[in-house]
Amino acid sequence: MRIRLAAEASTDSLRDYLQRCGCVVQRVDERTLEASAPPQSLNAKLGRTELAAYIRVWRAMHHPEAEVEIRSPPDAPGAELPLPFSPR
Q1: Alpha carbons within 13 A on the beta-carbon side of 10
Q2: Is the per-residue pLDDT at 88 higher than 70?
């Protein structure tokens, strides 16, 4: 799943948090991350839901003002979650 943040300052914070949660994360550019749920997730759809929950927790704990947009290909498993994603 591709995660785009409005502020560059939040990108490293979210990347570090998701990695601590066991997610696989790569920084694409200064405001974009490519992330997937921890490898032990049951399936892709549940993994996407799990990743969205981690983002909600990160926002609540560290950056409630952060604007986050989740971008995925329309045929991706679990892509039916609303986009852009506002985890509030």
Answers
A1: 20
A2: no
Helix axes 44-61, 8-20, angle to 10 degrees: 120
Rounded to an integer, what distance in angstroms lies between the CA atom of residue 42 and that of residue 51? Answer: 12
Distance CA 64, CA 38 (A): 24
| Under 8 Å between Cβ of 49 and 42 | no
| 34 bridge partner residues | 2, 26
Helices then strands (H, E): number in the chain?
A: 2, 4
Whole-structure pTM value: 0.78
Residue 54, token pair as written in the block: 């981690």
